[in-house]
Amino acid sequence: MTDTEHTDPSPLIRLGWEEWVSLPELGLPTLKVKVDTGAKTSALHAFDIETFGRATEPHVRFTVHPVPGRDDLVIPCSAKITDRREVTSSNGDTEMRYVIQSPLEIAGETWPIEITLTDRRGMASHMLLGRQALGDRVAVVPGERFCQPELSYEVYHSARVRKAAPNRALRIAVLSREDNYSTRRLVEEGEKRGHGVEVIDTTRCYMAINALAPEVHYDGKRLPRYDAVIPRIGASITPYGTAVIRQFETIGTYCVNGSAGITASRDKLHAHQVLARHRIGMPATAFANSPKDTGNLIGLVGSAPLIVKLLESTQGRGVVLAETRKAAESVISAFRGLKANFLVQHFVKEAAGEDIRCVVIGNKVVASIKRKAEGDDFRSNLHLGGTATAVRITKEERDTALRAARAFGLNMAGVDLLRSESGPKVLEVNSSPGFEGVERASQKDVVGRLYDEIESKVRPAPVRRRKTAG
């Protein structure tokens, strides 16, 4: 006989009728379970159960109270659905339940088990371990309890455990009306990470505004709970788009960029006032309403050449370079004739038709490119034929970009800088920067960094200990 034929089988794990277990992939490091060989299927107490994702690969999200009697402790979970089946409980009630698979850990041993999701509110154990999960590796001793080492619910208050929580699948909404590179990349990257990503046309959202249950509706139905919203609000619908974002903020959804920051950044006058308030360098800028002030307006920003810019201009449109003082007066007169709001700005000649686009995600500049205007055009926008190349920025430029994004409270921003003789000057802070030009020129995975930021922000929040009497 060989040595392997004499090898003893693995020793059985001895379990009583009540034990401590872990479901690490669900972010549940400690659960007290009832071991029930009379039940075929294991069941986990879950509520707010909601499906999401593609029909070919459906997922379910749900929340768990891991500690009986502690409704203040809520752990959000998600998993791939493996089945949906009819289950009859011990009291004879039958219901359809979603079935998931997750590793079970007991006494250092781990193996995958099937779990059904159901509301076990009011029951002493928030998880039932059925015989299907026990297999032939477990020996159950019905008259005993806690044959394996006892765990502690205190782990749910540990910062280390919260930091190590699994990156559960998220349900994310992209507010966008366009099927462009940026929207497609957001969907592609999110789904690659296992998240459910839905593109929502902002203008088709409508809102139920009340104190008790504010809601966002879409195509005749209430929108589900999203873990995060990524706003891609076009300039033409800024007022309505930011109203929709405010509604998501009211509900408590994490929005990558908040309504206040988007509103402030879109209004060029407001944006420059924000930059000035935070002492962030920018070209000298002036604004006036009366035609009698034209001469003084020009004098405030210096001599020609200078820039005349519509307040709502985007992608370089509505931006005019006036080479002489007379040309500036003519452009200002024309804009006033159209009853358009505009500002006048110093022209940074040494920038030579180049600017730097820094993409800020969270507290980091994740990519930077140099944009150069086509031919004699002074506008370097890629939409107008400008070219882009990767560029190494200075510490001062990096700090300026971060300060500018922070001034508007934006977690995602494209900050446009000019390199002037007196240091970097902020031209614009874009709350919906395009990803195509910057990803191709810099060869950086900007959208991936955005999802890193989202995943870090929507993990379970710290849980406060319940105060005890005495």
Give a verbal description of the structure.
One of its GO terms (molecular function) is ATP binding. Its cofactor is Mg(2+); Mn(2+). This is Probable alpha-L-glutamate ligase. This protein has 470 residues and is of the alpha+beta class. Among the domains are: 10-163, Acid Proteases (Cathepsin D, subunit A, domain 1); 171-265, Rossmann fold; 284-347, Dna Ligase, domain 1, CATH 3.30.1490. It is built from eleven helices and 27 strands. The protein has helices at 131-134, 159-163, 181-192, 238-251, 259-266, 268-277, 294-301, 325-337, 395-407, 436-442, 446-457; strands at residues 13-15, 18-23, 28-35, 42-45, 47-52, 59-64, 75-88, 94-106, 109-118, 127-129, 138-140, 171-175, 196-200, 205-208, 215-218, 221-222, 228-231, 254-255, 285-286, 306-310, 319-322, 342-346, 354-361, 364-372, 387-390, 412-420, 423-430. It has a nine-stranded mixed sheet. Strands 25-24-23-26-27 form a five-stranded antiparallel sheet, sandwiched between helices. Helix 4 (238-251) runs antiparallel to helix 5 (259-266). The longest helix is centred in the middle third of the chain and has 14 residues, at 238-251.
